[in-house]
Amino acid sequence: MAKAIREVYGTVLAELGEKNSDIVVLDADLSGSTKSAIFGKAHPERFFNMGIAEANMVATASGLATTGKIPFVNTFTAFLSTLGLLAIRAQICYGNLNVKLGGAYCGTSAAFDGSSHHATEDIAIMRSLPNMTVLAPSDAESTRWVTQFAVEHQGPVYLRLSRDVYPDLYAPGTKFECGRGAIVREGSDVTVIACGLLVHKAIEAAEILAERGISVRVVDMYSIKPIDSELILKCAQETGAIVCAEEHNIYGGLGGAVSEVLAWGGASAVTEFVGIQDTFTESGPYSQLLKKYGLDAQGVIAGIEKVLARKK
């Protein structure tokens, strides 16, 4: 049965804490929501509730990293990528410190909390920071892998985590690799490169369009930085059309990263963007927000239809 991304993250973090005593976890008074409380219950001596003081929490994690600890910093993505940004940039990334950032409730998954809690700029922010690795899991198995990878990797890592339940996509034991993406559905007419929840919406869209004779390839770009340039250029050459789909502003996120690869690689594929159209989002039921901002399967279909019309 599919599990909430945050539940998987908290559980795996606690499991890894059993094996590695250097792992410490910090939270900004939101551990019940981020699920870092699962680690806190299992390892209370290595869990620190820093209160609503995000910048201080990140700075404290930086200090812990200099002593050989592996700090995991947790709070809502909207706060981590803004209130915590100065310390992330000036201490963690500038010092290339071994700190891991767990950004919970990415995109609009905070739903009823509104735009103050929605994180729609974080990919652009985090991937622009030198030394930062940016990973966005799309199901339970990939969430398990990104958490394990973060422990093993030396250097800053940002994990883009949702509060929601994502359907199972990968079988247990699937091999992932930083700097790679995965073709999760083959197709020949157009490629949708997506991350997080939009991978599933892209698959839904592909299944609907298959009934109309349109063959859609779907790529899960779980590693956003470094990104799989080889796979992007291969898809551009083979399908001639790329749709980038993400629960993020259309500027600076996954779409921006893919476009950079296409430009530097000299690819001639027509490109379209499915994402939040440079606006602040509203509060409401999550499914209705996805529909309103074109982040559901129909939104992906609309993007595919636009790029195919231009391809002709």
DSSP summary: helix tally: 13
Radius of gyration: 19 Å
Q: What count of domains describes the coordinates?
A: 2
Structural class: alpha/beta
Model regions low in confidence, pLDDT < 50 over at least 5 residues: none
Largest sheet: 7 strands, mixed
Q: What name does CATH use for the topology of the largest domain?
A: Rossmann fold
Overall pLDDT level: 97
> What is the H level of CATH, i.e. the homologous superfamily of the largest domain?
Thiamin diphosphate (ThDP)-binding fold, Pyr/PP domains
Helical content band: 40-55%
Strand order of the largest sheet: 2-1-3-4-6-5-10
Name given to the CATH architecture of the largest domain: 3-Layer(aba) Sandwich
Tell me the fraction of residues in β-strands, as a range: 15-25%
- Euclidean distance between termini CA atoms: 42 Å
N-to-C SSE string, H for helix and E for strand: HEHHEHEHHEHEHEEEHEEHEHEHH
Shape: globular
- Reading off the top of the CATH hierarchy, the class of the largest domain is best stated as Alpha Beta
- By DSSP, the count of extended strands is 12
